[in-house]
Predict the structure.
Amino acid sequence: MPETLMAALDELAAAYQRYATTPEFQQELAELSRFYAGRPTPLYYAERFSRELSQGRIYLKREDLTHTGAHKINNALGQILLAKRMGKRRIIAETGAGQHGVATATVAARFGLECVVYMGELDMARQALNVFRMKLLGAEVRPVTSGSRTLKDATNEAIRDWVTNVDDTYYLIGSVVGPHPYPEIVRDFQTVIGRETKAQLAELAGRLPDYVVACVGGGSNAMGVFTPFLPDPNVKLVGVEAAGKGLNTTEHAAALAKGKPGILHGAKSYVLADPDGQIIEASSISAGLDYPGVGPEHSFLKDSGRVEYQTIDDQEALDAFVFLTRTEGIIPALESAHAVAAGMKLARKLKRDEIMVINLSGRGDKDIPTVAATMGVKL
Amino acid sequence: MNRVAMRFEELKKTGRKAFIPYIVGGDPDLTSLPLVLETLVQSGADLIEIGVPFSDPLADGPVIQAASVRARQNGCTLDKLFSTLTPVAARLPVPLILMVYYNQLYLRGVSRFLAEANTAGVAGLIIPDLPPEDATELRASAAALGIGLNFLVAPTSKEERIRLAAAASTGFLYTVSVKGVTGARHTLPPELPGFIQRVKTLSPRPVAVGFGINTPEQARMIAGLADGVIVGSALVQAIAEDPQLKKMASLARTLREAI
């Protein structure tokens, strides 16, 4: 990280320590989560989906049912409460699919703060609906034209803005990436997903799941659902990266599968880079997974072997998108469809009475134009 | 003593302040790099900073970003940059300093990168995204090879961080003049003179100031307070506008005279 931001990162870490654990903060977050964001989200037994595929039972953690339609709101709410206590008046964020941008614009509107969202030009074209949503919410969406014009470059631009406006600006990062303390903060605010899942499954089935599956771009929904299960060795945790057009092509976003240890956006983690250290542009049909790095804790969990990381390509994700839609009447985000696809493969191995939880991190409304285009349908 | 520190010692003896131009290595192409460097020396450069083109230069503004893209499009790789520098560095009378983002150094391997840079005649390094507390391995390797390290302080740096960066720097202390990325500014912040004076009192190392400086007036003001003046984007822009380098040479001479 540039030296200019080191003081701001220290300030953030101190503020997080000071405020986030207080009962007053926790209560405000709990109330907003319940009455504003719609938590707890259901843990839904996907009976038809399960029966079509498996002997076992597959549950979906319905983050798609939150306000704004993805898990991103959990982190946005937590961080905006922090920003407010730190006295910041301006919020900036990066976004890929636009879900984090929408979540940030939403909480900024709710708290009356100025909001600027950086978004790659390519992603703006892919996610025009979310761009308009952010604008409606009062945010300024700044197109990023540098590099690959996707999430990585939006993050660069957000960091450049923060360096310039560090005194009054809070950088509300959207995933478990970036410099310390962000990966920890974002994980903590997302852990509500896993805590609820654990409690709900205990109530519904009286036990722990055998598998928990989540997609990994930066990896915030996965960290959120995995973290409470890390101490339970019998719960198999599966992270799913985007294989794009295939792992043997150059067009994928599988930093854990194909990357090497490097430094991106102030964190040491697996990154897609060439031997010169140039960051390679990631590629996936889902804008939210289109990131050439991954959260540093995922790198740790890969190396430790606690989480198994798999990959799903564009076509498999599209097939899963349609399959879930047809069997359950639930249209998943293309990001989440990667987890669904991996879950479908694993489902065949499930024994009777075994339980799998798939984190359905977001809803697919935003992806309808992309999916229609792949089917050759003009809307 | 490394060549960067030695250069500042020499300048101090003659009462001169350092003029440190920055250019992007391989912009517009590697073939022109020797001529760019020679022209800068003829225009009065005391040390030269060479940016290694990078895909994600997050400390840089639009001018240097664009130069980085041009250089990469025209085939500048680390190997080619080093091999182009080797013969030029040997004959140039000024120390060359590479400005390189940490991922490039890290992926090549810190000790290998430093060895290759050393062979190419590089005298010092600036790593704009590496805080001194994360530089243990780098500091050991650089010390062994006699490569000068130049850490950065910013207007947001508290006293303890200024001391830390100064203690880790073996060349000069790179003092960032503004909150922000690289690039010419019409006006520098009013608190800049006070900030430079504070850094000067805290740093046992020479202090060179960069980011935002582009006019002779700004350069003169900085030279009155610091040991060196770094000018980047304005020169990079001059190269982009005039590949014949006349514009760059004339700007460099004007800045040199002001300093």
